[in-house]
């Protein structure tokens, strides 16, 4: 009974694992880490001072090479490391009622502190650490050299669409259509990005994505979508406006990620390998048990009661 | 009120009585309730069995529930959670599990109490006829009064088949002689009729005249339903009339065969004997639960380690990140609004304080490491198991129409671990339906059964139970010619017919000329003796308080019962003083031979004494119960002397028992031996087979009996307890010294035999036979006790004879104190109560001897042989299932806690949970609770047939194979592995992805729940549709709950489950987690079953094979086979 089950599991798992590996390998992913590369060499010893200095222009343009063909849509992510969005102090510091209802603007949850009230004593909308620390680096992309092809009428521009990066449920239920940012990012310590006070929260998709807190300290968040195909070897320039202070905490790694999507989501070698390993382990175990049964067959005295 | 009329008249009398009475007595003025209750010291008659009132329910019920330490723990955690710094869960979620458990229990308690309230109300509003004087007229009449308004002192009239509203002393009955018959079925379960008497003195006065003219002084209320001491003072009489237990009818009895009875209430309401006896039996705790507490401590240890680890690591983290905390967006240490103050931190109190907070928060987050739902699950499971035991047709005794009863609901699983059974003999191994078999009369033995024939001929009276008679004796009795032998033989039967407390009831038989007599009495021996006397023509036809009528060979004769010394277990005999029709006064004594030969004058008829002793020996060696009968004619002076002493003793309020005993001892001497009787006590059905099965199950059976050694040994043989190949060690000593010597001999003998035969095959079985006298000396001294224990433990069978009730408990204690063996005591009589309460498991046989044993027991059943299915089948199942359930609950909660713990390591050690708080709370209450309860009630590891066929399978429970530290460690390792799989497979897959915590939390929730449910499913052996529904239903229910939680916009993680379920990765991970989590348990289980199977697994394999063989080759015997 056991041996067939184990063999069966092996039989199922190895193909699934192989399929996962194949699927994962099809996904093309370009990761560009810029947190140190976009800081001028003379400021590297004090990155915090650099980032906090508003007078310095923090635009930085770099060229990326596309290793393989990338079919649309191409997803743009930003990636942070050692940023504890799951820190208890942080993850509870929000007021969902306030996000939803204009009437609840004053309902700054207990945990919204210390970003509950602006210096003038008015409630902050949206309050709390999560909203306050909104990620605000921006990226723009352009083709560097276009490989000419027959019948091509010029490349489509590499525009990044930021529509639809949040969940419909968030736009529809969590972030109110009549709630506008107020007193936001007015404090003495700036945590992150500003919000357009004329746009209701239900249209602030970056905020929605940011406020759906990540599960783990190294995470990616969707920045936008690029409706364009890129070909292998193509060079594209990415212009980063590096304004988010990730240098004040350990690591401070920031990266921009371009990725296509497979049926398992992004590029993920682990799952396929895990399936194959488990499948093989089951086979081995089945084999071992078979051998053991042959070497030590069930004897009759095994079936005598004490 | 009406009673006031007599108050002034009573004044003088009550004054004089104050001096007479002693402090312990209560004075009841007959028919004068107002005066009686003047000082408000007596309880009213309203009863209240309900525990709570609507106002006291909440505080009292909660107070009672919080006696459980676990509940206090959870309350403390819920309180901790309310502190703002420690608020891990929301208010609702933190209180919910405890509130749930408390509510379930409270609702159960409330329902039970409501039923009690209803019963109380019905009881209190019943109507009784109370004598009330009509104002002005001076006449009195019976007025219907509610029971709750009946007071002490009221005169109450009870009609046939009614029940008295309170305990009352009889004043008069419809019977001219003052007899009333009561049935005490509701009180002690005995269905035979008992006689109660009104005193002659009150009988002759009209009841209305008694009112206010009599005072009863009685002892304080107590719970002894067989004892009552009081006396009655009548105004016109100077002497005090003694009242005893036979003059009182108790609340809860039914008046039978008597048109009416009038009595005066002496104890009312909660002071009645019935209510005083209402207290429950002491609660016992099962062995498994005790062990469980040990493992709970381990779990607490693990919990503390986890919490300390988190707290320490959080300290390290804060220290290494100290410089960054101010600016890090996810920490924001400073509160800039209060920037005027130096170091104004927001919600940060320094590393030391944060460590403490984190520790406490960790305790809150990991609290379900200690499974709260386990306690309530165990109660439900025991209820379910009890239901199946009660419903088991094989535990139903048709002959007495008694079902199995579970009186204690918390030791079901102990039935699976019994190693030592202490059994009473009479009524337990035997039927306690006595049959008169033979007699030795005046030295002549009439024991030849072949000569005995059924009674025939012209008798006008037929005893209900037919008795065979010996022709020779018949002839001897009928031959009026005055041979010496004939005279003694007649006297013997007169003694049998008079010296008892039997009540004859005359029934109409099928033949109108023949009257059938049913003998009702408390002692089956007496019933047998009186029936025998009747068969020989000495028919007891009437009994009143003062005399009996015996139909002696067709001629009715009146015998005055002048005095009666009741049987007691010290004297071991009873006697009556009879005024015979020929004006002589005779003392008849009957009793056990040991007590009788001491008071018999052997010089009167030495030959007879010698012959009788010989006959007695032969009777008892064939297993008959023997009684010796003696007689003495009293002289006038002797009688008068006795009468004075007797009267004095029987009116005494204090120490009446002792006084009466010494009066009896004084008169019971120099008896002339008449003869002896042999009564057969038949074995119950299936006793030898049951004992054989129990022996195969390696359960030691000890028999403790009050019978004599020879009887005990012969019963031992007939029930296969003793076998011919056994070496018997007999300890039968009369002194301390000889007792010590025989113990030493026994020890050396045991050592010798044991050294001779080392291997178990050629072991000589040993039997220890010891008597009560020796036990007295042994229990004096711990050293001797130790020696006895050594011998007893080495013996396969122990037989204790002539033991007193308390010694029975002492023997049980001997084993209980020195070993961890589970003990079980089984008995049917009042003398077994102490033993039943002492043993780990007490079983009462609902048989002939009343219900005191049943009342004191944990389980009650009709037959001894039911022990086999009870222990071997139900006990085995209960133990196996309960052991598994406890382990599973530990494992299940630990797995969840470990998953939470691994996540905490990736959150800066701040006790964040990805799993929503509601899922955390519902996990052990809804997600996984039902399947374990269902499995623990319904699963069966082996079939009933197999368990009965191979009694040695019971050893699993004795060796604690289903619940021990090894299994606990094993299942904890499994739990760690599974938590690793649940946590790290998704973790590694989602390491650098856009996964949000709610989605990942949902994945973790679902995988843990599915994993632990599949784990359970893998261990289920017998599937039923309920099991399927519970296990798979739980998974579905969890899924639904997760979806519902994620569909509520105000809860965090809105819509996450829909999103994550839409990705292929989710499903791929779920599958991987379940398979990886299950493989070790699955493989280890298979390897164990294949290579080192235990008995149960072997038996299961046999079952499977037999099943498939029966399907394919029904007639082929099973032979060798291989396993998959």
Verbal overview:
The complex is a heterodimer of chains A (306) and B (1124). In chain A, strands 1-8-3-6-5 form a 5-stranded antiparallel beta sheet. A 3-stranded antiparallel beta sheet of chain A has the order 2-7-4, with no helix packed on it. The mean pLDDT of chain A is 87. Chain A has helices at residues 2-26, 47-52, 88-91, 96-100, 129-132, 168-174, 205-211, 269-295, and strands at residues 29-33, 59-65, 74-80, 138-145, 160-161, 219-226, 235-241, 254-259. Chain A has 306 residues and is α+β, with helices and mostly antiparallel strands. Chain A contains 8 helices and 8 strands, in the order αβαββαααββααβββα. Chain B has 38 helices and 36 strands. Chain B folds into 4 domains: 26-44 and 150-276, Calcium-transporting ATPase, cytoplasmic transduction domain A, CATH 2.70.150; 372-385 and 873-1109, no CATH class; 405-429 and 684-754 and 763-861, Rossmann fold; 434-681, Calcium-transporting ATPase, cytoplasmic domain N (3-Layer(aba) Sandwich), CATH 3.40.1110.10. The chains are: A alpha+beta (306), B alpha+beta (1124). At the A-B interface, helix 1, helix 3, helix 4, helix 6 and strand 6 of A face helix 33, helix 34, helix 37 and helix 38 of B. Chain A: Pfam families: CDC50. Chain A: Residues 1-19 form the signal peptide.
SSE layout:
The complex is a heterodimer of chains A (306) and B (1124).
Chain A: H1 2-26, E1 29-33, H2 47-52, E2 59-65, E3 74-80, H3 88-91, H4 96-100, H5 129-132, E4 138-145, E5 160-161, H6 168-174, H7 205-211, E6 219-226, E7 235-241, E8 254-259, H8 269-295
Antiparallel strand pairs in A: 1-8, 2-7, 3-6, 3-8, 4-7, 5-6
Helix pairs in contact in A: 1-8
Chain B: H1 7-20, E1 26-29, H2 33-36, H3 57-65, H4 69-82, H5 91-124, E2 127-133, E3 140-146, E4 155-159, E5 167-173, E6 179-184, H6 185-188, E7 190-197, H7 200-204, H8 207-210, E8 214-218, E9 230-234, E10 240-243, E11 248-249, E12 254-256, E13 260-267, H9 273-276, H10 287-320, H11 351-365, H12 373-391, E14 405-406, E15 418-424, E16 430-441, E17 444-446, E18 452-454, E19 461-463, E20 468-470, H13 471-478, H14 484-498, E21 503-508, E22 515-520, H15 524-535, E23 538-543, E24 547-552, E25 555-568, E26 573-579, E27 585-591, H16 593-596, H17 606-621, E28 624-634, H18 636-651, H19 656-667, E29 672-683, H20 687-696, E30 700-704, H21 709-718, E31 727-731, H22 736-756, E32 766-771, H23 772-778, H24 782-794, E33 797-801, H25 805-818, E34 822-827, H26 833-838, E35 841-845, H27 852-856, E36 859-861, H28 867-904, H29 917-927, H30 929-938, H31 944-949, H32 955-958, H33 965-989, H34 997-1019, H35 1025-1046, H36 1056-1061, H37 1064-1091, H38 1095-1112
